Amino acid sequence: MVAEGRQRIDKWLFFSRAVKSRSLAAKLVVAGRVRINRDKAAQASDLVKPGDVLTITLERRIFVWKVLGVGVRRGPAEEARLLYEDMSPPPAPKGEAVPDAIPALRDAGSGRPTKKERRQTDRLIGDD
Q1: Tens digit of pLDDT for each residue in 32-66?
Q2: How many CB atoms are closer than 10 A to CB 111?
Q3: Shortest CA distance to 12 belongs to which of 39, 34, 40?
Q4: What's the fold here for domain 7-86?
């Protein structure tokens, strides 16, 4: 028996169009990539209700969605967007470095030789 206003997490992810199939949604939950109100969802049968905050890790993106309602079917995208409010941080623009990343600095001549330097070394040694 399912309580009124609650839905299985795998069904909700499928209805909200976060994943393409319900079996993929179940695998996502079992892999530990879904959190409900900061707690890891242990199994696909965990229930969500309006007001819950989901943290979903898909590929290289992290989504933070607030559940607004339970789904009845997997409908068009406009209908799916009514099931959640997107609270995700904006993605970093492409080509822009992460601010915490420090570029690797090397002294000139250290590290592996370039192809040109390798050829010069081979000529010096006599290996053609």
Answers
A1: 999 999 999 999 999 999 999 999 998 888 999 99
A2: 9
A3: 34
A4: 3.10.290
Where along the chain do its domains lie?
7-86
Q: Kindly give, in sequence order, each residue whose CB lies less than 8 Å from that of residue 29, ignoring residues fewer than 6 positions away.
A: 9, 10, 13, 41, 43, 44, 46
Residue ranges in the chain whose pLDDT is less than 70: 1-3, 92, 95-104, 106, 127-128
pTM score: 0.69
Q: What is the pLDDT of residue 1?
A: 42
Q: Rounded to whole angstroms, what are the CA distances from 22 to 7, 10, 15, 75, 119?
A: 13, 6, 9, 14, 57
What count of other Cβ atoms lies within 10 Å of the Cβ of residue 87? 12
Tokens of 59: 């590929």
Phi–psi pair at 83, nearest 5 degrees: -85, -15
Using the 8-state DSSP alphabet, how is residue 115 labeled? H
